[in-house]
Design brief:
alpha/beta, four-stranded mixed sheet, globular, 36% helix, 11 helices, eight-stranded mixed sheet, 14 strands, binds tryptophan
Length: 332
């Protein structure tokens, strides 16, 4: 064995380098931006779970209600022995509804960028569903990742993509993701997607500007994470959470706004801010049922059914993989 020289500090992992690169790259761009997936460190994932319980944040409750009301029907899409693969699982309270309604699911594969979160949740799930095999995968589901061999061996795979996470992609990226999901899930796959619907701006604005300020904490935690992991020196008192509905583009925009002219250091680079300048941290696109179906069709999925709540705030849609992928268009 060749003895390796000891390095004075732990070697940076590839993932950390990507984080540093993406943050510096985004902060040097105009307008400034940081990819939303970096919200989800352990603190961010826990703050996000608190968002889902807020009185103003209707999407989680709406989606849970639709899932409960139609669980038996939705469960019919999941044949015996199938593997249920959840993209961006977080705390798996929605999957639990399906697991209860379809007790013959062979295998549950929660995929999430936050490894701590899914390991904790998997342990609890195993206690509550002793018959179920739970195989968490800590991965960025927007990138290629490998399914566990057991999931590949299942008779078919059903993708589960709740929480309107699809709305956090640009529409062309959402199409790209649906295509990528089809490749990962393979022949005869099905896909269950939850999407937030277009609705009055007041309802939307309130949902992302809660009175308790948890969404603000969630947004600002990105700077805390950058300070801790990338040697940043952002002053959190000098940035503010801004979220508003952009009607033309049917999306909530989340920003961190600089309250004054200031500089911050990140990974050895100095970033300058004008007073009022923002870092764009996330979009949450709102869809119509038809628009999501059209997007999915273009990405190789055949719409099977859509379930909405009475107020038409939220929609759960089911698809099956078409035999032939439509040809890739330049925009994708
Ligand atoms: N995808 C959901 C949404 O856009 C949940 C979500 C993601 C969210 N990031 C968020 C909610 C930030 C509030 C703030 O609504």
């Amino acid at each position: 064995m060749v003895a390796l020289a000891r390095s004075p500090r732990p070697l940076p992992q590839v993932a950390d380098d990507t984080f540093a690169f993406d943050v510096v790259d985004g902060l040097q761009a105009t307008p400034k931006r940081v990819p939303a997936k970096y919200f989800y460190d352990d603190t961010g994932s826990q703050l996000f779970e608190r968002i889902t319980d807020l009185p103003e944040y209707y999407p989680t409750r709406c989606e849970m209600r639709i899932l409960r009301a139609h669980a038996a029907e939705i469960a019919k899409l999941i044949p015996d022995g199938a593997a249920l693969v959840e993209f961006g699982a977080g705390a798996n309270k929605k999957a639990r509804i399906l697991l209860q309604a379809a007790p013959n699911i062979g295998l549950y594969v929660p995929v999430d960028i936050c490894g701590e979160m899914i390991e904790r949740e998997a342990a609890e799930l195993r206690l509550d569903f002793p018959q179920l095999t739970v195989l968490p995968v800590a991965a960025d589901f927007t990138q290629a990742f490998d399914l566990p061999a057991e999931a590949k061996a299942a008779p078919l795979r059903v993708g589960f993509f709740p929480g309107s996470t699809i709305g956090n992609f640009e529409p062309h990226e959402a199409a790209g993701f649906l295509r990528h999901a089809g490749k990962i899930l393979g022949a005869r796959a099905r896909l269950i997607v939850g999407v937030d619907l277009i609705k009055p701006a007041e309802v939307l604005n309130a949902a992302y500007n809660d009175a308790e300020g948890i969404t603000a904490q969630f947004n600002l935690n990105l700077l805390t994470r950058i300070n801790r992991e990338l040697g940043g020196n952002f002053n959190l008192d000098c940035f503010e959470h801004h979220a508003f509905y952009n009607r033309e583009r049917h999306r909530i925009e989340m920003h961190l706004a600089s309250l004054k002219r200031q500089k911050a250091k990140v990974a050895g680079e100095t970033i300058e801010f004008r007073a009022g300048e923002t870092i764009h941290t996330e979009n949450s696109y709102k869809y119509s049922t038809e628009k999501l179906a059209a997007l999915a069709r273009g990405a190789g999925w055949r719409p099977l059914h859509a379930w909405n709540d009475e107020r038409k705030y939220f929609s759960i849609q089911a698809f099956e993989l078409a035999d032939e992928m439509p040809p890739l268009r330049a925009a994708e």
